[in-house]
Amino acid sequence: MDVLGYGGVRLNVLDLGGSGRGILLLHGLTDRASTWTDTAQWLTAHGHVYAYDARGHGYSDKPDGPYDRDAYVGDAAAVIEALELGPALVVGHSMGGLTAWQLAGRRPDLVRGIVVGDMNPVTPADGIAKWQAWLDDWPVPFPTLARVREYFEGTDPGEGGAFPEVMTGGPDGWRPLVRTEHVLATLEHWMGRDHRPELAEVTCPALVVAGAARGRPVEGQRESARLLRGRYVELPRAGHVVHFSDPAGWRAAVEPFAAELA
Length: 262
Hints:
Blueprint: E1 2-4, E2 10-17, E3 22-26, H1 37-43, E4 48-52, H2 69-83, E5 88-93, H3 95-106, E6 111-117, H4 127-137, H5 145-153, H6 159-162, E7 167-170, E8 173-176, H7 180-187, H8 196-199, E9 206-211, H9 219-228, E10 231-235, H10 242-245, H11 247-261
Parallel strand pairs: 3-4, 3-5, 5-6, 6-9, 9-10
Antiparallel strand pairs: 1-2, 2-4, 7-8
Helix pairs in contact: 1-11, 2-3
């Protein structure tokens, strides 16, 4: 189904099933709603689950802009209001986690709890340059989905499972559904910033889940949980895409929290 988001942008929304109180899943940068399918299979026991492709992603509209935080937070608010999910449990991964806590701080009437999956509250000043270099390195078009899995699994655990979800096939191979210029435009509005003051504005229950595989730093996420006055779970086998790299650990962390808020 389609919902009009901030500024009238058309958002592609997936009804992932269940009944009861609303649960909204927000994917990370370059991802799309379908990457939540496995998580939704068990979350539906605790509410009615929806996810949507963020602006510029998946099968939602891809306008020239805006890609600032007001737009992303406005989109989430629009979906909750249009589908009458509020106050919703909002589960976000990476960029989606950032949107979740910003939405909870700005619109507490729409949010009854948040889950933040592997999002650092302080983003590096050189983050855009690193993303640009990484995106430039992608061997697009990929000849097969197997090559997509192989390439991304080598960068971080779980990414080999996630990235085939965000590719579309064509005569010459597989390309990402998101455009590089939209990724970079999005990053301009949250890289090189200290988001910790925002966390203190959140009043609803919160859970922070961090992936700690291969020595990934987690100190910032511990601090997020403290500032949110929430819970913290660290998954030693999970990479950045926590729900793909350690699905059992992710479920064990999130499901009890969701059950309490149901």
